[in-house]
Amino acid sequence: MAFEFDLDNTEAVKVKSIENFKQQKPGEKARLSIISFRKMSDVIIDRKQKEAGRHFSDSEKAEIIAEADKKLAAKLNKSVSQLTEVDRLSLDNVRLMTERTHYKDGIGTIRCMSKFEGNNLSQQEICCQHLGEPSQKIGTIVMKYPVDKHGKVNQDLLRNREYIEFYVWAFSPKKFDQIRSKYAEAKGDDPPRSRIDLNVTLDGDPKYQKQLIEIASGTPFFLREDFPVDMRVWILDNGIRLFKHVSDSLGFSMKKDTLLEKLGLSSGSSYDDDKPTPQLNSASSYDDLIS
Ligand SMILES: [Zn+2]
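^ thats the input. predicted complex w/ zinc ion below
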């Protein structure tokens, strides 16, 4: 579908500005920091909902957010209106995203179209009928540090914003478990650490991106006390801004029709999106509204 646009329409042309993190040579090392973090208020809401054993209404959530903002503003000596998105991050809680996907040669990785409630399938769609059970893919945003030839972080380059690379890091549940166990391990340190960097080494054929993942020593450089604040904000801002690319890396959203076509199955009229949906019986929909 062609359409006109002007240069203010930033959504019109999709710029693939961020690549997936991949290592090329067996034994290749990288020091990574996950730089996407959850909002403090979301972390609080999750915790309180868990304690209460129920989901909160929008107004209850708004109340918690307002309270969290007030406390944060007081702590930072700012007014609530001066708080930025970066101020509101919880640097102890990295942010990840997950999707259910199917993979097939010649089609690639596509998103599962079935509906789930928690981990239970509630409405099965053609993808699962023809491609079997979906697997999960998980992703986040990482920063790859500039290092010298011995693998040590080059702090001058880092502070000058040189050779810093940002990537989407997308992985299987197995790698997720590896990463989660490293964060859990660091929490057992004395004192407990929730802010860590990861040393990642490619183990074997680049095709499989199997990686040895270890906890790097010390606090992530950009979260250290003596690190320039403007640089820290720039990195955290990238973690927020680039997170929208994570979803794109977790499989292609294919239309049912297209999938049926690619599978060599005829697309029946029941999958025809262009057909007008039958009108709802007005009496019964009115009943739905008042019941
Ligand atoms: Zn599916």
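Residues 135 and 214 are 25 Å apart (CA to CA).
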